[in-house]
């Protein structure tokens, strides 16, 4: 990604809804299902060191809701987590709009479905 960040290590941990819900309750005090939680461990200004937890169940359900493939939705969520590490937020409407724009930008640039050149 061209967002001005250096990467040390980003671990992607694929898990269940229940596992991610437990992390959400414990670390963020949110009692809701989510598709992704990103933990950043590096000191400010240092190369990214992170764990990104992704609920495969949420990704699968969201793919149905948004009428897209599981693979496309998974890639979107992966970019979403990395964009958070790059400083993008999504709590306010204008932040969410920019986040969606950046997700689509990276999906179009990097996601190539199987069987295409």
Report strand order across the widest sheet. 1-3-2
Number of strands: 3
Average residue-wise pLDDT: 93
Write down the domain tally. 1
Considering the protein shown, what is the CATH homologous superfamily?
Answer: Metalloproteases ("zincins"), catalytic domain
Helix content: 40-55%
CA distance, first residue to last residue: 21 Å
Strand portion: 15-25%
Would you identify the regions where 5 or more consecutive residues have pLDDT less than 50? none
Structural class per helix/strand content?
alpha+beta
List keywords for this structure.
3 strands; zinc; 117 residues; rRNA processing; alpha+beta; 48% helix; three-stranded mixed β-sheet; single chain
In short:
The chain has helices at 17-28, 56-65, 70-85, 93-110, and strands spanning 7-15, 36-40, 48-55. With 117 residues, it is of the alpha+beta class. It has one domain: Collagenase (Catalytic Domain) (3-Layer(aba) Sandwich), CATH 3.40.390.30.
